[in-house]
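Aim 2 progress update. The chain analyzed this quarter is reproduced below.
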Amino acid sequence: MKIEEVKKKVKLSVHWLPRPASKYHGSYPLGFENLIVDKLGTKNIIHFFCGSSKLGYCIDINPDVKPDLVANVENLKQIPDNTFEAGLADPPYTKKFARDLYNCEYPQWSKWVNELVRIVKVGGLVAIMHNYPQPKPKNTNYVEVISILCRIKQYTKVVSIFRKTSQAAQRMSKEMCAACE
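Predicted structure tokens:
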């Protein structure tokens, strides 16, 4: 897909959020939680890797941050499919961050992202914060990529937002694209 086609299909936006919301290492920039609720259109959010945030139904592997559920997000069979209106994830960005900052194993992207998409209702939005745009998970379509500029000498944050589709819709979309080629 050419960049011109991407620009037509995916909204691109930039926000400046100047400082962390708390002293917790890895906390969201100030104002991010309000921004993401606006973007997702709901507060009925399943929130993976929540850290100190209290937005939505919070899941983290660290009991010290007092999440709603202490669990490894790679396997959440206790939560039924299509339960939440939206999903949010802010995983450790590197193996080094996982080890040195959070004292945990680096989570496997394919496992936790599949769980996140599974738990969000069809038509709901899934947002993933990272240092770069994220690949499109199965059964989703790109909606928006947000670049968040933070204070000086901090990495830019990138939030990729996807809409969960049904598997049937994904198959039809692929068939239509194949017919156009």
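The beta strands are 11-16, 45-48, 57-60, 69-70, 84-89, 120-130, 140-149, 157-164. The CA atoms of residues 148 and 162 lie 17 Å apart. These observations will guide the mutagenesis experiments scheduled for the next reporting period.
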